[in-house]
Every structure is written in C-alpha cells, then in structure tokens.
TrEMBL record:
It comes from Benzoatithermus flavus. It comes from the Bacteria. The keyword Cell inner membrane does not apply. It is found in: Cell membrane. Its main location: membrane. This is Amino acid permease. It is a multi-pass membrane protein. The keyword Transmembrane applies. The lineage of its organism: Bacteria, Pseudomonadati, Pseudomonadota, Alphaproteobacteria, Geminicoccales. It holds the Pfam family AA_permease_2.
Length: 463
C-alpha cells in the first residue's frame, strides 16, 4: 500500500528578534542627535535666541506627546513598519499607504541630508589642510554605501554601532557644556550680553517652530524596530521614553551653550553652531571632540534612517501596497535587503543635488504629516479597543489631552512652515495627493486586505 507523504509548508522567513531597549534608544536618539549639532539654530534667525528656546520647549512638548502615543500603540502593534502598521490595523488601507510613504520619504530625505553634512565636514577638514577645492560628492556616496552595507549585514550590529557612536556624540555635548564652566558666568558664556528681546515679535517665535522640529525629528523611528525587539512591551516604551528624555536634555544644553557664546545674528545662519562654539572656547580638546561628535551624529542619523526607511518600504511590499518583491528577507542575514538596496540610489540622487535646505524641508514636512495622523490614530485605537480589551505594554496618561495638544501643535507648525516654505508645502501636498490617487485607482487591487491584519485582537467595540 503506497503511503502518501505530505510535504510541510515552507517556513516564511521573518526578521530576527535580537534587539533590546539600548538598541531602541540608539535608533531613536541616533537619528535625531544630528539636529543638536546643526539645523536647530535656523530657528534663531526666525525668532531670535529666546524665540528659539521657546520653540525648543514647545516642540519638545509636541514630541513628548508623539513618544507617549507611539509607546502605547507600538508596544501593542508589534510589527515592522511602525506607524504604517498602526494605520493599517486601526484606520484603513489609504491612510496606511500615505503614512508608509511619509515615513519612507522623511527618512530617505534625512539620510540624504546627513550624507551632505558628512561631505561638508570632510571638506571643512580638508580646507584646513590646504585642499579647499575637494569634491564632497564621493564622500557622501561612500557614507551611504558603507552604512547600507552595514544594514544589509544585520540589524544587531547596525544598532550596536549606532549605540556607540550616538553615545560618543551625546557625551561631546555634555563635555562642551562642562567646558564652558556654566557655574562661572563670564568665563565663556555671556548670556546677559548676547540675549536680546524677540527681534521679530511673537510671529517670529511661531515661524521658528519649523526648525525647532530639528531638535527632535526622528524619535518616532523607534517604532520601526517593533518586529525585531525581544520584548516589544518592555523595550519599545523604555527605549522611546528614555530617548525623548535624552533629547530634551541635549536640546537644552545645546541652546544654552550656543546662545551664550555666539551672537544670535551669526548663530541663526551657522552651519555647525556647536563646533563653532567649541572653537571659540580656545580649547583644542573641545574643538576636536566636537568635530568628532558632529561627524558621528551625522553618521548615526544616516545609519538609523537607512534602517527605518527600509523597514517601512519592506512592510508595504510584504502587504502588497508596493510590489511584493520588496517584502523579501535575506535568507542568511534576515534583513529586508531588497528594500535597503532599492533606496540607496534615491538617497544618493537627492544628496547629489547639494540642496540641503530643500532636502531637509521635504523631510520635516513628511514627518509633520505623520505626526498629524497620530492623534486621529490614538482616538480610534482607544475607541475600538478600550483599556482592558487587549494587553498593552504601556498606557500613556491623561488621554485624550496628549492627542489634542499634538494636533494643535501640528497645525501651528504647518502654519509656521507655510510662512517660510509655502511653495514647498503646496508642492509636497500635491505629490501625496497624486500618490494617493495612484494607490486608490491602481495599486489597491493587488492588496490582499485579509492578509494584512496580523494582530490577534478581538473584534473592535461596536463592530
């Protein structure tokens, strides 16, 4: 009698769960910390030094709300894609597609900006050595290629490296703060002489909100590690909340040192404000340390952006929102290798434009659209699955106050962005409207909607 041997279904390759809270911290803070070394200071040109401080704290409140909301939802929706995975489970396909696109564009543009910064730092070092005509493009491309290779080979090594270089960059900020002797006013810091009233009034303060985002842009990237942490319920809230605390400290120290050494007229247009402040202290150690810190912060940011953009694109491919070819996992390294490789030329092409302000503006606006989605997502999440209906790794307090505050601050920041970059804002909105139409009328027919709901939740309340 012949026996029928039934072959087992091939096991689906998944991402490895190897990360801990420290890696989550390194991912979130690593992406953001470059904003403490440069970029935030353009808010000084809009609202003066005091206006920049107000923007620092108000936008810090915005991102604290982002961190709390993300910590609750992502510790429950433990899937790659972060906010994209949240949107597909809680709101619907069109919102999920747009949120995924926001994430990919925000991180890819930020990666291109980081590569430009690396090239500019190398050029500045070469100029001091007598090679002022150095071409920065090969260095920008080399930085992207090497970091992409690191991401290709595995997430554990990638974020372990990020943890080390991010920690060194953060320590350099603390070292500069201590080196200026804040306990001895007049030794290096001259706040009494340099701080002036709001030069452009309160409208200048509101306008400075756009660049105040630069203090914290990217902390929400911790959500992209949801499918690769060993314990999502513990690691994601701990890594995210400790990350935003770190950034609030770093932002306050950064403003305090730079505003006490550099006149606001210069600070508002400086490319590397902390490095310039270190040079003015006259300390060779601080000058070298801040150069290294600035370089490491840019590398850490680009490294984290490659990780996050690839996870978002991979998740969209796996759910057929994009071609399923992008949803592949490397059989040995267990990384979304096709998504990593696909996004390299896109980031490089934007880096080659050399238009740092335009690239960064696109990144900021894409991120801001993602933040505007979060309050809606939070309200629907609590309404569909009230407390006690499903297990949460973290419950953020005072709901719905953080969601309301976040929505109000996002609307205010959109207005601030319109004041300085109105045409770019309109162009970006047109881009996302066209992309939404493409998804609704063409790509959606490939989506297997029943396959994308992966969480073992009960039916939502009122279903």
């Amino acid at each position: 009698m012949a026996t029928v041997v039934q072959e087992a279904a091939p096991q689906r390759l998944t991402l490895l769960r190897v990360l801990g809270p420290g890696h989550v911290w390194a991912l979130g803070v690593g992406i953001v910390l470059v904003g403490e070394f440069m970029g935030w200071n353009f808010s000084v040109a809009k609202g003066g030094a005091l206006g920049s401080l107000i923007a620092c704290w108000i936008i810090g409140l915005l991102y604290t709300c982002v961190a709390m909301i993300d910590s609750e939802v992502t510790s429950t929706v433990a899937a790659a894609g972060g906010q994209y995975a949240q949107a597909k489970h809680i709101i619907g396909p069109l919102m999920a597609f747009n949120v995924g696109l926001y994430l990919v564009m925000a991180y890819t543009m930020l990666e291109a900006g980081d590569a430009l910064i690396v090239g500019d730092l190398v050029k500045a070092a070469a100029a001091q050595a007598g090679h002022a005509d150095l071409d920065t493009k090969p260095f920008a491309l080399l930085a992207i290629a090497l970091l992409a290779l690191l991401n290709y080979r595995g997430v554990f090594m990638t974020l372990t490296v990020n943890f080390v270089i991010t920690a060194i960059a953060f320590v350099s900020i603390v070292a500069l703060f201590i080196g200026t002797q804040p306990w001895n006013p007049g030794a290096a810091l001259f706040h009494r002489d340099l701080l002036v009233d709001l030069p452009y009034g309160w409208i200048g303060v509101i306008a400075s909100f756009q660049f105040g985002i630069w203090y914290y842009l990217g902390i929400e990237g911790t959500c992209q590690a949801a499918e690769e942490v060993r314990s999502p319920a513990r690691s994601l809230p701990f890594g995210t909340m400790s990350g935003i605390i770190t950034l609030l400290i770093a932002a306050s120290l950064t403003w305090y040192v730079a505003a006490g050494i550099l006149p606001w007229e210069y600070l508002g247009q400086a490319y590397t404000p902390l490095y310039d402040a270190a040079r003015l202290t006259g300390s060779t150690f601080l000058t070298v340390f801040l150069f290294v810190g600035t370089l490491f912060s840019a590398v850490a940011s680009a490294n984290g952006c490659i990780n996050d953009a690839a996870r978002a694109w991979f998740s969209m491919g796996r759910d057929r929102y994009m071609p399923i070819w992008f949803g592949a996992v490397h059989p040995r390294y267990r990384t979304p290798y096709r998504s990593i490789l696909f996004l390299i030329p896109i980031a490089a092409s934007f880096a080659f434009t050399g238009l740092l302000d335009q690239v960064i503006t696109f990144s900021i606006l894409s991120g801001l659209l993602g933040y505007t989605f979060m309050p809606i997502n939070m309200w629907r999440f609590r309404k569909k699955w009230p407390l006690g209906s499903i297990k949460r790794g973290y419950v953020h307090p005072f709901h719905p106050l953080p969601a309301v505050v976040l929505l109000v601050l996002c609307i205010t920041t959109f207005f601030a962005t319109f004041l300085g970059y109105g045409p770019q804002l309109i162009a970006m909105m047109c881009f996302y409207i066209i992309a939404s139409a493409w998804f609704a009328f063409h790509r959606y027919k490939y989506v297997r909607r029943g396959d994308q709901f992966t969480m073992p939740w009960p039916r939502p309340a009122g279903y």
